[in-house]
Amino acid sequence: MEHESALGFLAAPDEGPSPGVVMVPDVWGLADHTRDLARRLAAEGFAVLAVDPYRKTGRDAFAEPAEAMAWISRLSDPLVLETLQEAIDHLAGHSVVGGGRVGITGFCMGGQYTVLAGGLCTGLSACAPFYGMLRYADGLDPEAKPRQPLDVVAELRCPFMGFYGGADAIIPVADVDALREVIGGVSQPAEVHLYPEAGHAFMNDSRPAMYVADAAADAWRRLVPFLREHLGRTGTSA
Asked: Among 35, 68, 92, 201, which is disulfide-ready with 27 (CB 3.0 to 4.6 Å)?
C-alpha cells in the first residue's frame, strides 16, 4: 500500500502489520528518489514513512546546491527533531505497524538527523544513518544547532549502524574515525561501515555521478538484516 499525507509518504506491505521505519530525506526534501527507497524497503517487509522534514518550516524549493547548503546551516535542529518525533509516534500507532517496533534511517541531511534522533528522540529501536554530517562548522546559531551530531552519539538509545564514504567531500574520514571511537564506548550495539572509494550520496541512483553501485549494494545488504534483527518480526512489540 502507498499513501501520501501531511507527514510524508507511507509505503507498506499489503499484508501486515510490519516493523516500522521512519526515513529522512536529503536536503532536497521528500522527492521521488526517497519514495523509491521507501518502496524498496517496504518490499523487504517494513512499513516505511518517508517524512517531509520541512513541513513546519514553510521553505520554498531550492534553486541550486549552494542555496541548499546555506539552508541546512540555518535549519532548526529542535524543529526537525520535533517533526521526526511526531513521525515516530504516528508510525508506531498506525495500523500498518500494529504496535511493533520503529527504527529510523536517513540520507545526507537525513543521515545527520537520524544520528540526532538516535540519541534525542524516544520510541526508536534501530538507527541507521547514511553519510550524514557529524560536525557543524563553527559560528552557527546555537539555538538552531544546540548539539553536534557526534556529541549526541554517546547518548544513543538504540542499536546503530552507520554508512559513510571514504571519498566524501562533505564528511571527513577523520569525523568517521571519531564516530567509531565514540560508539566503542556506548552501551548499544553499534558499528560503522566505510566504503573507501565512495563519495557523498553513493546510494543515490538518480544521480549517476554520485552513485556507487558496489557500495550501495553492500550497504543495503547490511541495512535490511540490521533492521530485521532489531525491529523484530511482523507485529513484534518493543
From this structure: 68
